[in-house]
Amino acid sequence: MQLLPRHYVFLGLFLLIGITMVLDIPVDVDVSPYTKQMYAYIDSIPEGSTLIISFDHEASSLPEIRPIALAVLRHTFQKNLKLIGVSLYPEGTLIGYRLINNVAKEYKKTYGNDFVYLGFRPQYIAAILAMGESIEKTYPQDYLGNDYKSLPMLSKIQNYDDIKAVISIADGSLTTHWIEYGGQFNVKVLGAVTAAMVTTYDPYLASHQMTAMIGGLRGAAEYEKLLGMKGGGSRGMLAQSAAHLYVIFLIVLGNIFYFRSRKKRGTS
Amino acid sequence: MDISTIIAGLLTLTIFTFLYKDNPLYKMAESLLIGVSIGYVLVITWTNTLMDMLFEPLFSNAELSLIIPLLLGIFMLGRFSNKTVALSRIPIAVMIGSGAGIAIPTMLYNRTIKQLSASVMPIFTDSGGFNISGIIVIVGLLATLSYFYFSREHKGKFGVFAKLGTYFLMLFFGTTFGYTVMSRMSTFIGRMEFLLSDFLKITH
């Protein structure tokens, strides 16, 4: 494998993903029990209920997070649920605001009545605990500078008692804090996380500390299938399958070269 | 095409040049990313933290109790001089003390007690059959814990059981690695989608 310069490996991946995305052949995905559980839970929430959606991620994970967030946001707006957007990572603040606004426009939802965006608060543990006491005291104003009380949909929202669930869109361990600290107030926590974090949250799902979870681009594709729409998740499935086959091919090739070179060393 | 898409597309391609080799263009894009990220975080911290939560309530609404966190924050800056470094220990002590006070019972409950109780499942299912996954979980848990039990030499039956624990660990590492590869590929695919659709307009 040392004979194969690394940039050829990258070039191969670049071409493979580029070609498969241009071809845009639809790939049918089986919906996992995780995604079904997440979809069913959001689907079961009565219309008009309020959810918190927390953008707990950095800008670097946006390419993976975006299709997941869009799928979940579309489902919530389809179901006429009211959304309170927050962010516990500074970098997620503007991204969350843009995403929630773009999807709200698709469904003709109005700011203040159907959704609000409260923005960032530092010290995530303190912020989660403080919202359990009073969301208004934690966010006296929204992201745009409007007073909490001036926003109609927040008039009856005091704390987690008035919230059906928190959806944490995360690329790291912040959902853990929603589970552990938000859990003290008995709020249901749903995760929409990057694939790398799935194994971290699996134990919380098994112990029912977390209500449901979707993970990665695959999770987004499955969710889009349940919603009956095409999005970034389903568009990326052919490329992802091809990329995985490419990685498997490289691992096999690397092992063949390794054992051959070991055999050669042994005979010499 | 708007200017932000052009800038984003060009910077993405610039970052990709690193895959060939390190070069000044890549370094420029990398420095730009770090600079913009820090600048953005500073602005958000200033407006959403210092202004919203400290200066405005303190000076506009006369919430005098906020003088305490303000002083603690100023003390933290004492670290920059040897003469005032002792002052910085006060806010650090407050942070560690309160942080540990909040975190220890929460973590003990959520990560130990709740997880432990979730690991203990009935051996038989409601229909009378064996709860295979429950048995795998308990065997995996005990075998993995045995591997990390160092007060007894890993020999004989105990050694075999501890060795079994390493296989469970390998399964976990393999799964995590697989998911991580999937995650990185997804990030790359997301960026390629942006390049092909928004920037180059090849796909829709």
Structure summary:
Chain A has eleven helices and six strands.
Key traits:
heterodimer; A: about 270 residues; alpha/beta; six-stranded parallel beta sheet; 6 strands; about 55% helix; about 15% strand; B: about 200 residues; mainly alpha; 6 helices; extended
Strand content of chain A: 5-15%
Uncertain residue segments of chain A: none
Helix content range of chain B: over 70%
How is the main sheet of chain A built? 6 strands, parallel
Number of separate strands of chain A: 6
Order of helices and strands of chain B: HHHHHH
Textual characterization of the structure:
- The complex is a heterodimer of chains A (about 270) and B (about 200).
- Chain A has helices at about 5-25, 35-45, 60-80, 90-105, 125-135, 135-140, 175-180, 200-205, 215-225, 230-235, 235-265, and strands at about 50-55, 80-85, 115-120, 165-170, 190-195, 210-215.
- Chain A has about 270 residues and is of the alpha/beta class.
- In chain A, helix 4 (about 90-105) links the parallel strand 2 and strand 3.
- In chain A, helix 2 (about 35-45) crosses helix 9 (about 215-225) and helix 3 packs parallel to helix 4 (about 90-105).
- The longest helix of chain A has about 30 residues, at about 235-265.
- The radius of gyration of chain A is 22 Å and the shape is elongated.
- The two termini of chain A are about 20 Å apart.
- In chain B, helix 1 (about 5-15) crosses helix 6 (about 155-200).
- The longest helix of chain B has about 45 residues, at about 155-200.
- Chain B starts with a helix and ends in a 5-residue tail after the last helix.
- The model of chain B has no long low-confidence stretch (mean pLDDT about 90).
- Chains A and B meet through helix 1, helix 3, helix 7, helix 8 and helix 9 of A and helix 2, helix 4 and helix 6 of B.
